[in-house]
Specification:
Helix 1 packs across helix 16. This protein has 2 domains: 249 residues, Rossmann fold, CATH 3.40.50.2000; 161 residues, Glycogen Phosphorylase B (Rossmann fold, 3-Layer(aba) Sandwich). The protein has 16 helices and 12 strands. By secondary structure, the chain is α/β, with parallel strands linked by helices. The protein starts with a strand and ends with a helix.
Length: 427
């Protein structure tokens, strides 16, 4: 048995897969501690896992006016990183407080292995402090260098050296934001001398740390030139709780009639004008002549009187709901993309920023959905047109089912557990 600390930071899409990994590790006989923003404490404990405190300041920042402006307007990683420099004065102290929180959990729990999201920038150094091993778990291809493809968010100019340079740039900028905070924390903890880690993904000697990518090659790119200790395990799906019961009114809404049903949800993304977005969604569903299930989420999606053809929900498990709809519309988060396609449903992606345009493009290139509609360009007419196109396209529906069959055959969590056990046993 190992003691494994999982540390992650971000929105629900950055936490839920790591909870799924924690469940898999526990079922394999290991002791697990999940350190995540305290707004997810109930989720972690609800799956029978030990919870380690971390503040939720990053979530609050994303929900601030500036955070909403960023998610509304940014469409590539370069602009995202540039914009975050505007927040540098806030981000530095905020990162230090997150590092402190995670460090306290590691000091008390004393894990054998620390599995960390790259946003949880203290991960490798927690392992160093307690004499454990560090392994990165990343939801997209952005930390392991490849000549075949650039870091997500950069254009692919098919120049190997340039592609590799994009990863170095992202790592440089990532460490620029947190190195000072890490060094201050190490000094306060009494950890002397040079660190055994050069950055979030490399040891001091340049060797790559073990890295798990929690996505599937069925949808995303998996370069052939990754090192042996970097893998794409498949998506980490969190099973719904056995005691969950669907709302009777929702069940009735889904079962009545034979009108196509479209799910719309943009997760924790809100942008600076959720009212405009809500109006576009409602208008699009009505013009397409479909029934709609609209997830309010953190996005402030629906704040108006809805027609009888549209049903508003808060938190319903995707693995249950998506089986019962005909089309899925979402922001392009990795988790939503995986859940929709695993259910075999054609997908319309309306991305905000970050990796979302990438996943939208993946869905489109697979033939399992239409070309992504950026949030800034989302209108009722465009949404209605996309929905009608998907419903008419039998080839698109069949492709989505084909992708779903492949995803259902994968065991991403199981692969990740075996990966951790293998590299934890290595000297």
């Amino acid at each position: 048995m190992m003691k494994v600390m999982i540390v992650t930071v971000g929105s629900r899409g950055d936490v839920q897969p790591y909870v799924a990994l924690g469940v898999g590790l526990r079922e394999a006989g290991h002791e697990v501690m999940v350190c995540a923003p305290n707004c997810f404490e109930e989720m972690v404990k609800g799956y029978g896992l030990s919870y380690g405190y971390m503040n939720s300041e990053m979530i609050e920042l994303l929900q601030s006016d500036l955070g909403k402006e960023l998610t509304e307007n940014l469409t590539n990683i370069v602009k995202t990183l540039r914009a975050f420099f505007r927040l540098y004065k806030q981000m530095g102290p905020m990162q230090r407080r997150m590092i402190d929180d995670g460090g306290e959990v590691a000091k008390t729990f004393k894990p054998d292995v620390v599995v960390y999201h790259p946003k949880a920038c203290g991960g490798p150094w927690y392992a160093e402090m307690v004499g454990g091993k560090a392994m990165m778990a990343v939801p997209m291809g952005m930390m392991v260098s490849s000549g075949e493809m650039p870091c997500i968010g950069f254009p692919n100019l098919r120049l190997g050296w340039l592609n590799r340079l994009t990863y170095k740039l992202v790592m440089l900028l990532s460490m620029k934001g947190c190195r000072k905070q890490i060094e201050g924390w190490r000094k306060e903890m009494g950890i002397e001398g040079e660190s055994m880690y050069r950055d979030l993904a490399h040891r001091r000697n340049g060797d790559m740390l073990p890295v798990m990518h929690c996505y599937s090659g069925v949808i995303g790119d998996v370069p052939s030139d990754w090192p042996d200790n970097s893998v794409a395990t498949g998506f980490w799906f969190l099973k719904r709780k056995t005691d969950w019961v669907a709302d009777a009114k929702l069940v009735k809404f889904l079962e009545e009639g034979d009108t196509p049903i479209v799910y719309v949800g943009f997760g924790s993304m809100s942008g600076k004008n959720p009212e405009r977005r809500a109006k576009a969604v409602v208008e699009g569903l009505i013009k397409a002549g479909v029934k709609g299930v609209v997830s309010k989420g953190w996005g402030g999606m629906v704040n108006e009187t809805l027609p009888a053809s549209i049903y508003e929900i808060d938190d319903v498990p995707h693995d249950w709901l998506f089986e019962k709809v005909d089309v899925v519309v979402h922001h392009g988060g990795a988790g939503s993309t995986a859940a929709g396609l695993r259910a075999g449903k054609p997908t319309i992606v309306c991305p905000f920023f970050g990796d979302q345009p990438y996943w939208g493009k993946c869905v489109w290139k697979l033939g399992a959905g239409v070309r992504p509609i950026p949030q800034k360009k989302l209108t009722g007419d465009k949404l209605a047109s996309a929905i009608r196109r998907v419903l008419r396209n039998e080839g698109m529906k069949e492709k989505a089912k084909e992708v779903g069959t492949k995803l259902q055959a994968e065991d991403g969590v199981g692969e990740a557990v075996r990966f951790i056990e293998k590299y934890a046993a290595d000297d």
